[in-house]
């Protein structure tokens, strides 16, 4: 019996070794890379520091991205006199740039100018300056990347830009801000990304962080909430990815990161609108990875647990008691910690990015037909799955009992409410 198990293991390892060239991507060099964080990251090969071990200039000229004029947006849509022609020279001291895509709502900004009145902040600027996306941008900037930040609120963008710039490791690095809604109009997203690529060069890494959560009981959530979350969390990841993928395939370089959630690995009470939008990302990522792997483009899906961000604070205002109690099974992470893990996994080209022991177990348990990026990962999944399913049954039992207790509690308090 033992012998049989050992033989099986040896055969399995041998088999995995045979396919290993196919499953082990080369790490991406971040210094000088252009990263877009919606976050997105973009790279300028000519501005890579000398320390860069794998210069992109080594690519054959035929693979270099072609420069194209934006299709939908007429050049007249750009504010006159603000866009330098051709590739920007001396990015260390870039001229102010305002790119307004058609139908307004899209802007591209080096951050030099004062925010226009129409973009004045509503509420506190801390909102945009502490999410997972901002921390991912900081993590990449610390490693020498060029950053394009994408979000809607211009004041929050400029605030985040200032903060990120504190972490520069050389004076050539640039943070470009683009104000656009990534979930509304594909042409608009494509235009601003093209314009960003004209300034900073082709995108090496795109991090799709834009997203939100609206928890609530199924029957209490507005029908429009289901549409909104699908639009921001799912289409908001499709559009920027669709806009960068052709160039990545042409250059045979690229990383696309999707930020799903632990709630994209299991369905939970209160997340009937949120969970499906995060599950959808996994389907997109698997299908896309199979398409782009031969082009040396790697996809990463991150499944963070609850993370201490402005978005999480907003979510907590609406959380049903059940959702809160179930979520408390795992502890709340720091966005810096989540960002570090995401960037590390993206650089290595890992398909899966998770945090903590629950995250590890969930990922192994729900690996399904997801691509495997290392032999160890494949082996661990095979060996641990039965054990983790057993543990999961206990978790599910405890979640059910939380839901039942909450129901009994509200049934008890309801008659009192009526008499009150
Ligand atoms: N925090 C958590 O507990 C967890 C979060 N996640 C996921 O991580 C991602 C980031 O979350 P978190 O940092 O908490 O969120 P935050 O709300 O703190 O930040 C979200 C960022 O996305 C931008 N954004 C939102 N909608 C759009 C849009 N339509 N177009 C462009 N930009 C947009 C926001 O800027 P602006 O509003 O100005 O557009 C903001 O910069 C989300 O996808 C979330 O679902 C996953 C697991 C756990
Ligand atoms: C072996 C099996 C182990 C199972 C462990 C299960 C743990 C479940 C906890 C789920 C927490 C949900 C986090 C959602 C975070 C999120 O996306 C929002 N905060 C976004 O704002």
From TrEMBL:
GO MF annotation list: 3-dehydrosphinganine reductase activity
UniProt KW Coiled coil keyword: yes
One Pfam family recorded for the sequence: adh_short
Primary site of residence: endoplasmic reticulum
Any one annotated GO CC term: endoplasmic reticulum membrane
Keywords: Coiled coil, Endoplasmic reticulum, Lipid metabolism, NADP, Oxidoreductase, Sphingolipid metabolism
Region (Disordered): 58-129
Pathway(s) the chain acts in: Lipid metabolism; sphingolipid metabolism; Sphingolipid metabolism
GO BP of this protein: 3-keto-sphinganine metabolic process; sphingolipid biosynthetic process
Reactions listed under catalytic activity: sphinganine + NADP(+) = 3-oxosphinganine + NADPH + H(+)
Keyword Cell inner membrane attributed: no
Class of this enzyme: oxidoreductase
Compartmental location: Endoplasmic reticulum
Known EC number: 1.1.1.102
Segments forming a coiled coil: 150-199
CDD domains: KDSR-like_SDR_c
Annotated transmembrane regions: none
Family stated for the protein in its record: Belongs to the short-chain dehydrogenases/reductases (SDR) family.
PANTHER family named among the record's database cross-references: 3-KETODIHYDROSPHINGOSINE REDUCTASE
Stated role: Catalyzes the reduction of 3'-oxosphinganine (3-ketodihydrosphingosine/KDS) to sphinganine (dihydrosphingosine/DHS), the second step of de novo sphingolipid biosynthesis.
Protein name: 3-ketodihydrosphingosine reductase
Source organism: Tupaia chinensis
